[in-house]
Amino acid sequence: MKSEKRYSGVVVPMMTPFTPQHTIDEAAVQKLVNHLISGKAHPFILGTTGEAASISRHQRTTLVTAAVKANSGRALVYAGVSGNSLQDAVEEGKTYHGLGADVLVSTMPGYYPVAPEQMLRYFTALADALPCPLVLYNIPATTHLSIPLDVVEQLSTHPNIVGFKDSEKGVERISTATALWKHREDFSYLLGWALQSRSALEQGADGIVPSSGNLAPAVYRKIYDSVRTGDTVAAAQAQQKADQISEMYQKDRILSQSLAAFKAMLAAYELCGPDVLPPLYRLPAAEEQKLMQEVRAVFGDLNNINRI
């Protein structure tokens, strides 16, 4: 069994709990962070699943403060600083680290088409200016940019860049990435494509970043631990259950709709309310109620949905 790197394991892109007035629901933040940590996962706040692009700057600071307080040093807190302004990313990174975030995560700005050389210069400038470690984040579904793996490889030698979270789909890309970095003690590869969690870990990925881990962190932790111990049967069973959970809110929905559906599923377990921020909107009332009933009927209570 290979040794665990510092930035590894199950890192859950945490949904952001909101009140009906669209402010941060700090009590629900505490509940959700506790739930993730009980499943042996690290919280990643202000990511795509957390609707970071829609949250005001003041409310983002409120969320970081609440999450760090709830975490109370028990796990690593990852915090997103993605956006279209380098200066804002640096300022927010300094603020979040000062509040207690352990590691920052950033995509490329997604407004302009950019060349690989521009990606290199942007991330180098960002990493140079940040006071704590940075994980690069690739998600073409939202940024409409794909960070080439050779660009990541060049950036991986920067002393303040410690990992790469990749949400781009492609089995060959996973194989290439694991081959590049699985033996690097100073650089971690985290996969954000939940359906390939088991496969990526078996090939040598250091961790996984599954949205569905908001509801079932222990299921993804079971995949991770089972792969590490060589229990292929348990890993396959856990992956199958994880996929069933994901399908319930993702099937036939685009990303913005699936996030609202998943919020409803979390609400069914009283982990947070169903409210989302524009341009996301809650499901129609009947559809929302049906989904909340369905998830409990299929998977049982919170303990059962986290059990393999």
Fraction of residues in helix: 40-55%
Q: In which order are the strands of the major sheet placed?
A: 1-2-3-4-5-6-7-8
Number of helices: 13
How confident is the prediction overall: mean pLDDT?
97
Computed Rg: 18 Å
What structural class do the secondary elements suggest?
alpha/beta
The arrangement of helices and strands along the chain is: EHEHEHEHEHHEHEHEHHHHH
Largest sheet: 8 strands, parallel, barrel
Distance, first to last CA: 22 Å
Proportion in β-strands: 5-15%
Low-confidence parts lasting 5 or more residues at pLDDT below 50? none
Overall, the morphology is: globular
Oligomer description: single chain
Per DSSP E runs of 2 or more residues, the count of β-strands stands at 8
Describe this protein's structure.
This protein has 308 residues and is of the alpha/beta class. 49% of the residues lie in helices and 11% in strands. It is built from 13 helices and eight strands. An eight-stranded parallel β-barrel has the order 1-2-3-4-5-6-7-8, surrounded by six helices. The longest helix has 19 residues, at 232-250. The model has no long low-confidence stretch (mean pLDDT 97).
Summarize the structure.
The protein has helices at residues 26-38, 57-71, 86-99, 116-129, 140-143, 149-155, 171-181, 197-203, 217-229, 232-250, 255-268, 285-299, 302-305; strands at residues 9-13, 42-45, 78-80, 103-106, 134-138, 161-166, 188-191, 207-208. With 308 residues, the protein is of the alpha/beta class. The two termini are 22 Å apart.
